[in-house]
Fold this sequence. Notes:
The structure is a single chain. The longest helix is centred in the N-terminal third of the chain and has 58 residues, at 2-59. It is elongated, with a radius of gyration of 41 Å. The chain is an alpha+beta fold. It has helices at 2-59, 90-101, 142-145, 151-158, 175-187, 209-212; strands at 74-81, 84-88, 110-112, 116-122, 128-134, 140-141, 164-170, 192-196, 203-206. It folds into 2 domains: 1-60; 74-212, no CATH class.
Amino acid sequence: MHRKRGLNGDFHNLLNLDSLVDIVSNNVGILIILAVFMAMFSLLGKNELVIPKTQSTENIKKLKIPWSHVSQKNILLIFLRSDRLLYLDRTLVYQRLKKYLSGSEPLPKHVNLDQFSIELTVGSGDAHCLKFLPSPRSGQWWHQFSQSNGVMEKLMKKYPPEENYFFFWVDPDSFEMFREIRKSLWALNFEVGWKPIRIETPLRYCSGVGQAREFLPQ
């Protein structure tokens, strides 16, 4: 009887031990499986986080910020209003005034040209100011101004971007037109400056370093 009880006791102890081992093994297995799943979820989570960053990076557009700066280049003045462009040719003005320098006649205060006139103010030395007065409905539409052998093409051939830049007086009604023109000039390596104007704003260009700071390219 004692021997049977001993065998039965040993058997039950062994059974309990085996059960405990199974339970522990199962728990360890479950823990391992959970660990694997957690690792997989963490990797998936990282991938999910990376994808939007990649997509957002791809969707970022470069924005060009035009900064004004001092330049020693020659300035080409353009008047833009009602989507019509008028080149204010200072060279033509100086050629007209040149004949007065060698003669006895005083410099005129007012000079009429083809599509605009100027008022001249003379200071000490070579200092002077030109006030441009465009004629009514003067200038050309962009498709005329930029056509083959048109004003813009002639200007770009005569005045390379390494030595010249464009400066626009722009009425608010022509901002969109100006931005498109500026893009096209930037693509051709021309620097472009501009100033917003109103109808009452005088279109005045004065010589001298201080005045030149009002006509900075970008």
